[in-house]
Amino acid sequence: MDSAAETAGGYQPWSEVTPDAARRLLIAAVEAFAERGYHATTTRDIAGRAGMSPAALYIHYKTKEELLHRISRIGHDKALEILTTAADAPGGAAERLDAAVRSFVRWHAAHHTTARVVQYELDALAPEHRSEIVALRRQSDAAVRRILADGVEAGEFDVPDVPGTTLAVLSLCIDVARWFSVSGPRTPDEVGALYADLVLRMVGARPHEVQPGT
Amino acid sequence: MDSAAETAGGYQPWSEVTPDAARRLLIAAVEAFAERGYHATTTRDIAGRAGMSPAALYIHYKTKEELLHRISRIGHDKALEILTTAADAPGGAAERLDAAVRSFVRWHAAHHTTARVVQYELDALAPEHRSEIVALRRQSDAAVRRILADGVEAGEFDVPDVPGTTLAVLSLCIDVARWFSVSGPRTPDEVGALYADLVLRMVGARPHEVQPGT
C-alpha cells in the first residue's frame, strides 16, 4: 500500500496534508470516490485501501463528508491559485489567457482522477461546505472574466458575451478531466497548447487566416 | 409516482421504450443513477421510485447493468443521430457545424440528467456493452471530424489539428450536461447559439474583427 500511495502522492497535490496517515487516507478516498462514486464508498473501504483500520481513520476524519470536503477544498484552492496567478501576471490579455488555459488544462489532465471527484461530487457536500466551495468557484470564474474584460477593453479581444465565453472557457478546460487518459495520444502539455490556441481563437485574438470567398 | 414519471417522460427521449412499465423503470433508473451514482443504486431503489415491486422490475430488466446499458444505448444513438444528421445535411461546412453544435448542445442542456448518466457511468458497463458504446462514440466523433475536414478542404476553415479540434468541440458540448441548470440564466437554445458562434471561431470560420495593433 505504501508504494502505491507514495506514487499517487508524488503525482497529486497532497503534500500539504499532514501527517502521512491523513495524506494516505485522502489519496485512498480520491481513488475510491473516483472508482465507485461517493455514495457507494464507505469509510471502511477507504481505511482498507490505505491499509488502516476504520478506527485509525476516525482519528483523522470524523465523517466521509469531511474527507470529500478536504479533497474538494484542496482542489478548488489549487484551481483558484492557477487562475488568479495567470490573471494577475504582467503582460497583455492574450498572454495571460494563454497561461491560464495552459496551466488549468495541464492540472485537469495530470490530476484527472482528483479533478473528477472535485467536479462531480459537489452535490454530496454538506450545505455549509457547498456554499464555501461555490464561493471559490465564483472567484475562479471572476479571474477568467477579468482577463476577457481586460482584453476587450484593450482592443485585443472581440467577445460579444463575456460571462458566456468565460463559462465556455472554464467548461472546456474542466471537461479534460472526463476524457483525458494517460494512455491517450496527447500529453497534458500538448492538450494545454492545443486548448490555449483554441481559446485565443474563441476570443478573436488569433489572426483570421482564411479569406472570405476563397 | 405516475405524474412525476410522465413529466420526466415528456422531457426525456424515452418514447421508444415500451411497455409503459419498462419506460417508467428506465426514467426511475436515470434519476437514481444521477442522484446517487450507479454503484450506490440498487434495483430495489429503482423499483421503489417507479412505484413497482422488485419482482415487477425483473420482468423487464434482468440486472441493473441492463438498465444502464439501455439508457446508455438510447443516449448514444440519439447523439449519433444528431451529429450525422448535421454532417449529412446539404450546405457549407460552417452551416453544418453550426447545426451540429446547436442541436448537440440543446440535447445536453435539455436532457442534462440523462446525459450525465450517459457520460459519467461508461466504466460501469459490462465489457461487451462498453465496446458497443465506444463504437458509437467513434462514429459520433467521425461525423464531426468529417465536417471539419470538409471545411478545411473547401477553404472555409483554418484548423491545424482536426482530430484535436474535433475532441475539443465534442467535449465543450458534452460538458454542458455538467453545468446546465434549468434555474440558470440561459435557455438550451441560447447556450446552443452561443456555442455555435464560439465553435465557428475555433475553426477560423468567423471574420476576425479586431485589427492587429489597435
Overview of the structural elements:
Chains A, B: One of its GO terms (molecular function) is transcription cis-regulatory region binding. Chains A, B: It holds the Pfam family TetR_C_24. Chains A, B: Keywords: DNA-binding. The structure is a homodimer of 214-residue chains. Chain A has helices spanning 2-11, 20-36, 43-49, 54-60, 64-88, 93-110, 112-120, 127-153, 162-174, 176-179, 188-202. Chain A has 2 domains: 2-62, Arc Repressor Mutant, subunit A (Orthogonal Bundle); 71-202, Tetracycline Repressor, domain 2 (Orthogonal Bundle). The longest helix of chain A is centred in the middle third of the chain and has 27 residues, at 127-153. The model of chain A is unreliable at 1-11 and 208-214 (pLDDT under 50). Chain A is elongated. By secondary structure, the first copy, chain A, is mainly α.
CATH superfamily label of the largest domain in chain A: Tetracycline Repressor, domain 2
Largest sheet of chain A: none
Shape of chain A: elongated
Rg of Cα set of chain A: 19 Å
Question: Could you tell me which chain pair has the largest interface and how many residues each side has?
Answer: A-B, 44 and 44 residues
Helix content of chain A: over 70%
Order of helices and strands of chain A: HHHHHHHHHHH
Distance between the termini of chain A: 61 Å
Number of domains of chain A: 2
SS element count, helices of chain A: 11
- Indicate the CATH class of the largest domain in chain A: Mainly Alpha
* Count of strand segments of chain A: 0
Q: Helix/strand/pairing class of chain A, anyone?
A: mainly alpha
| CATH architectural designation of the largest domain in chain A | Orthogonal Bundle
Question: Oligomer, anyone?
Answer: homodimer
CATH topology of the largest domain in chain A: Tetracycline Repressor, domain 2
Overall pLDDT score of chain A? 91
Low-pLDDT ranges of chain A: 1-11, 208-214
Q: Strand-residue fraction of chain A?
A: under 5%
Organism (chains A, B): Streptomyces subrutilus
Protein name (chains A, B): TetR family transcriptional regulator
Keywords (chains A, B): DNA-binding
Pfam families (chains A, B): TetR_C_24, TetR_N
